[in-house]
Specification:
Two copies of one chain form a homodimer. The first copy, chain A, is mostly helical and about 450 residues long. Chain A has three domains: about 120 residues, MgtE N-terminal fold (Alpha Horseshoe); about 110 residues, CBS-domain, CATH 3.10.580; about 180 residues, SLC41 divalent cation transporters, integral membrane domain (Tetracycline Repressor, domain 2). In chain A, about 65% of the residues lie in helices and about 5% in strands. In chain A, helix 15 links the parallel strand 4 and strand 5. In chain A, helix 22 packs antiparallel against helix 23. The first copy, chain A, is elongated, with a radius of gyration of 31 Å. The relative contact order of chain A is 0.06. The mean pLDDT of chain A is about 90.
Amino acid sequence: MEEKIIEIKDLLHAKRFSELKEYLKEINSVDISSFFEELKGEEIIIMYRLLDKEKAAEVFTELDSDIQEKLIKVLTDKELKDVVNELYLDDAVDIIEEMPSNVVKRILKHIEPEDRKTINKLLKYPEDTAGSMMTTEFIDLKENMTVEEALAKIKKIGVDSETVYNCYVLSATRKIVGVITLEKLLLSNLDTKISDIMDQSIIKISTTEDQENVANMFDKYDEYALPVVDKEDRLVGIITVDDALDILKEEQEEDFEKMAAILPSEDPYLKTSVFTHIKNRIGWLLILMLSATITGTILAKYEAAFEAVPLLVSFIPMVMGTAGNSGQQTSTIVIRALATGEITLKDWLKVLWKEIRVGTLVGLVLFVVNIVRIYIQYQDIQMALVLGLTLIFTVIVSKSIGCLLPILVKKIKKDPAVVAAPLLTTVIDLCAIVIYFQIATSILTGIKGV
Amino acid sequence: MEEKIIEIKDLLHAKRFSELKEYLKEINSVDISSFFEELKGEEIIIMYRLLDKEKAAEVFTELDSDIQEKLIKVLTDKELKDVVNELYLDDAVDIIEEMPSNVVKRILKHIEPEDRKTINKLLKYPEDTAGSMMTTEFIDLKENMTVEEALAKIKKIGVDSETVYNCYVLSATRKIVGVITLEKLLLSNLDTKISDIMDQSIIKISTTEDQENVANMFDKYDEYALPVVDKEDRLVGIITVDDALDILKEEQEEDFEKMAAILPSEDPYLKTSVFTHIKNRIGWLLILMLSATITGTILAKYEAAFEAVPLLVSFIPMVMGTAGNSGQQTSTIVIRALATGEITLKDWLKVLWKEIRVGTLVGLVLFVVNIVRIYIQYQDIQMALVLGLTLIFTVIVSKSIGCLLPILVKKIKKDPAVVAAPLLTTVIDLCAIVIYFQIATSILTGIKGV
């Protein structure tokens, strides 16, 4: 790949345009589009004009929106008309959503009136729903068609369809009565009736379905395309698997950010301004900082204890750290298991019981390791016992909170990743401190309790 | 969906098998297979025998491996032969990999000798590589074929191909010279030469490619299938997008677990034994606990300081918590950006500069909020200043470490998610404590330093 980019650069700078034009034929549209990032000024339009019409539209779709904007400004009316009418409507909608309004006006002016109506309809669907992902360019067939008639229709309208591989058999009221793949059509006799070979186990998506659910359905059903229906169950569009893949990655990255107490960002890291980064992170940071003061206030009540035995203070990081880590291990696993459907709300007791057992045994291991360690380092058997018992109890409590909190949050219909992961540290820190000092004041002779 | 499951259950228990057989025709194979989880004993084989041959193989592929094993034990030799020969080879390989050896022997005995040879070859590829994901059932064409000849070949061998939608044009030495889609073949004139219309911008995967890279290539290139070539660049197999989707989800879940300091697990949460859960979590928990003792030892050196001003202790949770949270925000974003290719190693200076600026401004906000809060609560301007300055500096340092550590780990060719995320808390806690008490001993009059 690197060599190809160097080759393109050399040809471009040497102005060997006809060689470059030939060379570009062997390079994938996606790779060509990522190369555009490195072009400056006039190079962009020169490069673009070396591509044939079909490839130009493919490359255009893959470009970052700021480069698309630059390009639109310098394209002639005919060139703009060519590329926008080559686009599939869902791609056109995606592009339009990123453009400033004067550019949108110019684009729409050059789109065929029929398509313009459809695009405006698609733009109305709420963002992040199936309606906003779909395209209306699909192949619909009738039940009483023969395979021969179906293939003829596909040949006629296929060039405008996002995909010809899944065809939808519709009733008179445009409800889906069956699905048939191009593969099946090709491998059947020409006079077979569609109704005899179509698949009746249809998976449908409603226009209002959340995009994350749409992506999960593609993963579950292993389909290349799925139909989208409106409230009256009529076929209005299709979504193809490549769009679902993009959504899947997007949603996963959002989940990572939520679990680190960050508001999800729209753009890639380096393209996000310092100001936006701050905006995404300051909220939770403030909340968590202020809630840590509750832990601090509780800690202050045990002043008498750590004045009497200052050694107690030096173990605070280990106690809080271990509690935090074990709680986060559990909460991460449970939040992901809830998100992927591995566990449901009614499994809460099974999960809690599993975590209590894991916590007890893990706590016992830490207990033993710690007692040995502290005795070797300090020869203080009472302190060893305090820390050991603290660790067992905090680990059990942390893991219990770590699984119950996400489940509770999901029960009240909020997103566990957003609420639970950040709040968890605060709750667990609090419990860890209380458990620690209560055990300390009970066991260490001569310390006054709270 | 719920109503369908209830309907199936009712029909099954009422032994209305012919109605059930008809009803099952309208239900997707994936949904039928998830229903098998709820069947017991004889019901499994009864249900299975109600499915037609094609659907039976589809359902079989989707079943959990323990149910597949139960089924294989009760299927007749003919039934077993039917289903295993209906399977695509990559699915057969996946199934065989999960079975105990006596079951594998029985399966292989009923597979056609040619396929058996291929399966054994596929089983030899290292797990998690393209070779272990691929199937050898693809359509290959010759350059000098016409569209008519190509379609004829597809009709002949198409039923055995994993996909007929992408066909590979091979040279005499079986190297790929072009790719052509079924769509293009269908929409072209019958006498057109393949070499005139084939796409020469071919994306290839090597058999040794890591499965995560394979999944990312599908996401990047929006293809339905990609060809796999051996060391001599010859076409040996294909991978389809549904397999890539599964891998993508699997890899993402692994990354979540790595970042929570857990060894990734193979099975769903509830199916993983308590013992396995412990094994996956105890490692890092021990390491982190022992490394927290370093922080504790440093903290002990400041004993004189917090003996003189006990209030300092109560702010330890807030200081460590804020440092930890800001560091984790940064490290999560940077680790994910490295994983998705948004940033590369050579961007390290840009990233550091961005994080320093974000850290400074975020730190300033926390500085102000905290000074106000502490002054209101304690009327102690010196303490307010100590905490304020501590927060600014720890946030800047945490965010710097948070971005540099993952990049450093990637530089030495280790996985940032595994190493950086857990280690980060330890390093940051240490820095936070040192910064805190150094500032405290400098500012608060009357405290002796370390």
